[in-house]
Every structure is written in C-alpha cells, then in structure tokens.
Design brief:
The chain has 296 residues and is mainly alpha-helical. The chain is built from twelve helices and two strands; from the N terminus they run αββααααααααααα.
Amino acid sequence: MEETGYPWWGALLLAVATSLAALQLLLSRLRQLALDIPNHRSLHETPVPRTGGWAMVVGVFVALLWAPVAMSAVTVTAFALLLAVSLADDLRTVSARLRFAVQAGSVALLLVDLAPGLAWWLMPILLIGGVWVVNLYNFMDGMDGFAGSMTAIGFGTLAGISAFRGEAELAGICGIMAASSMVFLYYNWPAARIFLGDAGSTSIGLAVFAVSVYGWQQSVFSPLVPLIIFSPFWVDATYTLLRRMYNRERWWEAHRQHLYQRSALSVGTRKTLGIELTVMLGTSLAAISVVALGLA
C-alpha cells in the first residue's frame, strides 16, 4: 500500500451503497439462508440469518476494487482462505481443527507479507496473537449491536489517527471498514434482523490484525494504539478464557459466560450495549490522546 492523495469519499459511498444493496437482498429473497436457530447459549429467541458479514465483505471488496489500493496477492489469498472456510461454517458446520488450521495459515501469510523483516522470535508470538484476534471477534459476536459497534468505532478511530499521521490510504481502508459496518449496524441494532456470522466476524478480526501490523510496520502508530482501541473485546475474551481454563471447564465449547453475556442476561441487551458503547468511546479517546501526546 502506498500513500496517495486520492479522494476517498467515492469509495466510502460505494461501500455503503453496496453493503446496503447486499443486506436488502439477504433480508428479502435470501432470508432463509444460514439461519441462526436459538439454543440454550443464545441471547436471541427467534431464528435470525447470520449472513450480515457477507454483505460487509462484498461492500468492502467492491470499494477496494474501485479505489487505488495495491493489495498484494499474498494478502488477498490470506483473506480469501479464511473467508472460504468461514462461509462454509455459516452454511454447515466445519471442524474446529480445519478452521484453526486455515486461521493460522491466513495469519502466517499476512505476517510474511506485511512484516517481512520481523524478528524470528516475534513470529510465533504474533501468529498466536493473530489467531486469537480472529477467534475473539467471533466469540464477542454474541449480542445485538456489539460487534458492529466495536468495528465502526474501532476502525473509525484508526482512520482518524492514520489521517492525522498523514497515511491517507490506510485511513481510507479503515474508513471503508467503518462505513460498511455502520450499514450493517443499522440492521443489527437490538432487536437484530441479521447477524454477522462467522464469515463476517472472522474476516473483521483478520482485518483488525492486518491493519494493526501494517500501521505498526509503517510507523503510523505503535501496537499500543489498536490494543487500547479494541481492549473492550480482547480483555473480556481473554479474561473469560483464562477463567474457564482455571475452572477446568471445556473452554473450547460455546457458552454464555463472557462479561457482556452475563450483563445482558442480568440487565438486558440495550443497557449492556449502552455500557459497552461508553467503554468503547472511552478507550478510543484514550488511544487518540496517546497519539496526540506523541506517546505512540
């Protein structure tokens, strides 16, 4: 990716229009496709299609094709592999072993492409971290409006920071992600008419990791910046995982023990989402402050 003075407003509008058109199609003629049937772990009570992420991916893809973004074949392959296995998982169950293998392969490809001069000892750490980001976004996509809000606020904040640092192309890419997620969020707001699904949540997780690594390698911001911005997700997911492992529970199985899930069951989805939105805005403002003060 190279810096450019290209006006990104057209790409943002194209992302919005394409995502909106795809969502309308998925909610009308394809509404019965990939339904999420409620079970004892669910927070919703009626079947909801888990195809919202498909619309986001289409919107982002079309916008990036139209904009002058030089995405390498390696990076495109990384996202394509993850999207393929996640789409299959939305339509029918795919084994955890296969999903994990593809996730690890996609993260490894991104690291080779975006951080070629990486120290050898950092590679396994970032590989594990990347796979964790992909999965935690999937884990945290369990409440109406939650993952969509984190995506919109998170990438919107990174877009602003990248623009402030003079990296117009990275700002444009993050802006496209934020714009597409805002369209999805309109239909995912409580009570949600559509969910992200695995294709959406894992692709967004990989995008968070890719933008974080690229921004760090290009000295746009330090790794501390995305860690602060997305801390509402990784803190909850990591704490819950460690707690379940400590209690010798079957931590790899789906559950309703995340902090946001326990809160939603206690005070309701809307109140919990309001609390989480406040936290997200707070962590984003903290990241902006760190950048403005020249600390990261």
